[in-house]
Design a protein that fits this description.
Cyclophilin; four-stranded antiparallel beta sheet; 13 strands; seven-stranded mixed barrel; 2 domains; alpha+beta
């Protein structure tokens, strides 16, 4: 099916591919983004991927709405249902439970599991970065086992530490910076997910794969020292095809 084209103000267009969270739909969103990036049209200012749509910001002095709609329709014609990309896989070390993961006992109780079983399930597979949102660098990750899905907190916290790994429904995510938040926090990573000194500043991007690796408190502290000294880069496994 062709995507829906929805005007968003006088300088943006939403190209919508579906109405739910779906890996194939999200892959088409990212495929269209790659097509537009390769096109390098001077009238296209920025593209922003979400779960099911791509927001295309354009220069209204260079392109009219009808021009953008025609451009998007043409670009979308060659997209396929089984669109594939070559994602990076990035390992994120996590200290689970205790002060770093205060909601781990509640998640375990909701699931009817032991805390170690929750940790094992959470770290068992790779997650897809569907999109970044909420705050700069915050990854919305798909692939959480349904067995450990848990609702948001009834009352959000006023402060969630940077690096906190949380669960909300069937999603998991990582808080890049300290902020309020209502996700159930099960652990924390010392890895810096957003750094304004870097280009790009966000560690992750839509389409990446994330692999969580449980670490001890001692290992966490050692990695945190390396991060503070700018001497730490997340491990990118060789099989991901990255240099």
């Amino acid at each position: 099916m062709p995507p829906r084209l929805l005007p968003a103000g006088d300088s943006a267009l939403i190209v919508e591919f579906g109405d739910g969270i779906d890996v194939r739909v999200n892959a088409r969103v990212r495929q269209l983004q790659r097509v537009l990036d390769a096109l390098r049209h001077p009238g296209i200012v920025e593209t922003v991927p979400t779960y099911r749509s791509l927001m295309v910001h354009y220069d209204p002095m260079a392109l009219g709405l009808e021009d953008v709609e025609e451009l998007m329709a043409t670009a979308a014609e060659g997209l396929t249902e089984d669109a594939q990309d070559a994602p990076r896989t990035i390992e994120i070390p996590v200290l689970y439970g205790g002060a770093a993961g205060p909601d781990l006992p509640d998640v375990a109780a909701i699931a009817g599991l032991q805390e170690q079983e929750v940790i094992a399930l959470h770290a068992a597979g790779d997650y897809v970065v569907f999109m970044l949102g909420f705050m700069p660098g915050f990854p919305y990750l798909g692939g959480l086992p349904r067995r450990i899905a848990a609702p948001r907190l009834p009352t959000p916290r006023t402060v969630v530490p940077a690096g906190s790994v949380g669960i909300a429904g069937e999603q998991t995510g990582i808080y890049p910076t300290e902020s309020p938040g209502g996700w159930r926090i099960i652990g924390r990573t010392p890895v810096r997910l957003f750094d304004s000194r870097q280009t790009p500043p966000a560690l992750l991007e839509a389409g990446d794969r994330v692999r969580f690796t449980p670490v001890s408190a001692r290992e966490y502290d050692a990695i945190a020292r390396d991060v503070a000294a700018d001497a730490c880069r997340p491990i990118v496994p060789a099989e991901s095809g990255n240099p």
